[in-house]
Amino acid sequence: MAFRRLPISTCVLEVERKFRSLAVRELTQYGGLPHFKSLQRLPDQIIRDSYYDKSNILSSVGAWIRNRDGEWQAKIRKGGNFTNSRFEELSSIEDIAAYIKRTTGIDAGEAIDFGLQATATFSTRRETWVADDEFHVVLDTMDFGHQVGEIELQKTLVGEDGGVPTEQQKQNEMQIMDDRIVSFMETYSWAFSPGDPKGKLTAYFERFQR
Q1: If you count Cβ atoms within 10 Å of the first and of the last residue's Cβ in the chain, which end, N or C, has fewer?
Q2: Would you say residue 1 lies in a domain?
Q3: Where are the alpha helices (DSSP H) in the chain?
Q4: InterPro entries given for it (predicted)?
Q5: Per-residue CA distances from 144 to 120, 133, 134, 137, 187 (Å)
Q6: Helix, strand, coil % (nearest 5) of the chain?
């Protein structure tokens, strides 16, 4: 008798907490106390993003559709607030199109930008470090002069018995991830400037839609 292995359903969860800027001139492993257990700087990136929406329908429900360097992505908020964000990420064209159809009623393909309109386009210089082997420390500087950083954790969540991960599973896992980020930022508070951060889209719209 042959047994067929069922495909395992997964989803990618991302939890992030934003910070205004770095509190040190240069982020290094031994730049403050306590020291990072480890710190690896990744190559800098130049990222070009175009964000899409339709009459603010998507942003009003906490969804961001963007084309990043030619690749479509959807980030769907699963809780938290601006500073403390929890997302499920979609990268499959089919999943993105299905989500847009469910949310807006628009049934359109990638070739015509899913029937959406570009609302913001800008380039970002991204500096990234991996601290303590898993926490991504990201500092973004946009081409219109704004800067904001974030601490990120990502996890691929596997559904039980090959099924789709439940919303409760997602929420439980994201709470654990967020608690770990809070602890990380408190431990290394010397690295991050106090004050309220402002997101890149908020800063963009403030500047260009006056």
Answers
A1: N
A2: no
A3: 57-60, 93-104, 167-187, 200-208
A4: CYTH-like_dom_sf, THTPA, ThTPase_euk
A5: 12, 32, 30, 21, 32
A6: 30, 40, 35
Phi, psi dihedrals of residue 92, rounded to the nearest 5°: -75, 130
How distant is the alpha carbon of residue 96 from its chain centre? 16
SS3 189: helix
CA 157 to chain centre: 16
List the CATH number of the domain containing 125: 2.40.320.10
Residue 80 lies in a domain: yes
Residue count (the chain): 210
> In total, how many domains does the chain have?
1
Task: Answer yes or no: is 2 within a domain.
Answer: no
Taking the C-alpha atoms of residue 28 and residue 38, their distance in angstroms, rounded to an integer, is 9
Any idea which residue has 């992505």 for tokens?
Answer: 73
Backbone angles phi and psi of 165, in degrees to 5 = -55, 135
pLDDT over 70 at 26, yes or no: yes
Beta-strand relationship, 135-142 and 84-90: unpaired
The confidence score (pLDDT) of residue 162 equals 65
pLDDT in tens, 67-76: 999 999 999 9
Domain, as residue range, for 51: 10-208
% residues pLDDT > 90 (the chain): 75
What mean pLDDT comes out for the span 128-144? 97
d(C-alpha 104, C-alpha 139), whole Å: 33
Mean pLDDT computed over 73-83: 83
